[in-house]
Amino acid sequence: MKYDAVVIGGGRSGCSAALELANNGKAVCLVTEGLTLDSLKPEFNGSPYKRLASLTSAGVVVMRGDSVVGGHWDGFRLVEVFTSNGLILQAEDFILATGRFFSRGLVATMDKIYEPVFGADVDFPSDRSEWFDPDFFAPQPFESFGVKTTGEGKIYVGGVPAENVTAIGTILGENAGK
Asked: The whole model's pTM is what?
């Protein structure tokens, strides 16, 4: 299936980006594991389907219950992505809006933090003791970690910017674009 843009992640940022692109005449596919928590806010009258209806009425193809598990690159350009349900989605542009730790947009092990879909570079200190503050109630340093991006929001993979993959939302760290 071919689209102008594939948005990966159905949270507030992903849904907003998909809607904006569709309203600008783009053919858009949104891949999301579940309903966004944003859709349950009072402005949507408590119905998780209002946000979904606004996306589908704008022409966005919403693939709920699916996730992107990888992709095929041609040099520094992402050509297509593969989903856990066996689909292949092609697009000119891809938007990574998978969130951070709680939504599994970033994953932490004992020695590293990584972005699991494309292996995007993540900005974090190598000393694990700098990942947290011993005071449980203090702001935690890991909350500022995120994928490295160019000034235009393109992700880095192996130190090289991807030509057509933009990161948005909470997957961005506080040093994104610097």
From this structure: 0.88
